[in-house]
Design brief:
The chain has about 100 residues and is of the alpha+beta class. The chain has one domain. Helix content is about 35%, strand content about 15%. It is built from three helices and two strands; from the N terminus they run ββααα. The protein has a two-stranded antiparallel sheet. The protein is globular. It starts with 8 loop residues before the first strand and ends in a 5-residue tail after the last helix.
Length: about 100
Amino acid sequence: MLKLARVSMLILMLSLSGCSVLQIQLFSIDQAVARLVPNDPPGAFHSDHFIGELEIQRATQLWVQGKPVPMTGGQIITEKGIENLIVLWQRKAPVI
């Protein structure tokens, strides 16, 4: 399992049989949470740059259960991490 600390985005490209390419995008926890639910928050321009209500609920579930956040390479939300996510959600601050 790949462990990464706050990487904004990592693209791994693997060449398979000379012409096919597999592209894997890994995001920081903040960025991945903002992408958990498409179009959340509703009506937001570039909603993938903001944490919506459904996304903060899902992040809280992942934190309580100790499960890794999808699209992060196995990163798990810490207590400090959930606090940061809640602040971003409450302030409607962009996640870049």
